[in-house]
Amino acid sequence: MAARKGPMSAYTDSPAYSAASSGHGLLEGWKYRSLRLGPFRLPWYASPESQLILVSFVCFLCPGMFNALNGLGGTGQRDEDIYASTAANSALYATFSVVGFFAGTVTNTLGIRFSLCFGGLGYCIYISSFLCYNHTHNLGYTVFSGFLLGCCAGILWCAQGAIMMSYPPENRKGRYISWFWIIFNLGAVIGSLVGLGLNIDERGDETVNDSTYVGFLVLTFLGACLAWTLVDAKDVVRRDGSRIILMKHPTWKTEILGLWETLRTDPYVILLFPMFFASNWFYTYQYNDVNAAQFNTRTGALNNTLYWLAQMFGALIFGFALDYPNVRRTTRAKAAWASLCALTFIIWGGGYAFQKKYTREDVVQEGYQLYDWTSSGYIGPMILYISYGIYDAVWQTCVYWFMGAITNNSRKLANFAGFYKGIQSAGAAIIWRLDGLQNSPPPYMNLFASCWILLAGSLVVALPVIILKIQDTVPVEEDLKFTDETIEDVIGYGVTYDSPEQKTA
Which of 89, 167, 435, 495 lies in the 20 to 30 Å Cα band around 281? Predict the structure, then answer.
């Protein structure tokens, strides 16, 4: 078998080193058997593809249902009861911002399966609190559920980010991100369709019924159980026989120190923090100040469905474009940044034109007419809301891809994902709180302007990272610096690797 010379990418992605046909006896058991379904050969269970699909369905059933419910505006609550949603989500994101920042330590120490299952249970409790609130108006339980979900979701999303960015080969990271985003948002689409079907006759502005909450509660519990079907990261093997780069013997001490080492060795990641901060800031405005403020219950449910469908298409297009093989990765990174700039001004420019038509004072006046899908003039706002969904998917896909292009190290990427979700949630906590102020909430236009300015400004701050830190490939020696593994632990079976030091010895 031919030797591989010089600095080597973390992945060979060659069929010659297929784990299923390596013949070395190192990969035995059902986890590494590839099944044939008609003309198609399915990936083995412990492959990155299978694991990504599983974690996608965990998120389909847990955060996907959360997004579907929140996308209705006010987590399905209306009028004075919307304050319960705002209070719960403020507690959620405030807690998430702290736990998420340190979640890489927890995920690296306890493992993927425990992290995802623990995270999924938080979504069950969160939804149960709103079912309870419909009957008891127990605000304390609702706020507690938000606090608990902040702890759980921070760990779940850190584990998910580590899988999505570190499991795929370098030349497939964009499509893996898009596959995840499509399946994940399919959960929100189905959840939204359930909400639409149960509320299709609600032409007024009513709280969603108990059946909606019960349906979401059952689905989130199934998602938490599904997390236990994943395999440990150390058992995952790629097509070329290579393994995930991680710590073989993680401890609380090594992972707490690893968090600090990530910031010390990769300080440039701080320039991405404004993009992280902005990435969930606009949700509150879109959910509460556009969808809930301008559309009746059934039309808001329809908008919600279209929003998440648009996310699937946005992720599909950009995910595959980011992996386009005939263009260097450094060029693709710059093109992605330029595309984000263009979309920021085109879509949010349209949002500015729409926002000028109403104020917070207008929508609380008695007799204010909300849009129904039968109303004249509904098509324009509907297209705008679909565009907001596309923009969100493009933003999230690009941010994940930027991080995944910097390193292939699972341990470091878990910390990157924790930084991302923690800082993202800090922004969300602030904007949820601002929008929920009962006595003097900011004008809608002020919240809109804050979204637009943050998005545009964060792109400018991130540009040096895009230009200077994203390479066409990352040598495996660079990725191994942050772990206790060796090259022999991670490259494909039967591959002879000659390092530059060995070559000159």
Answer: 167
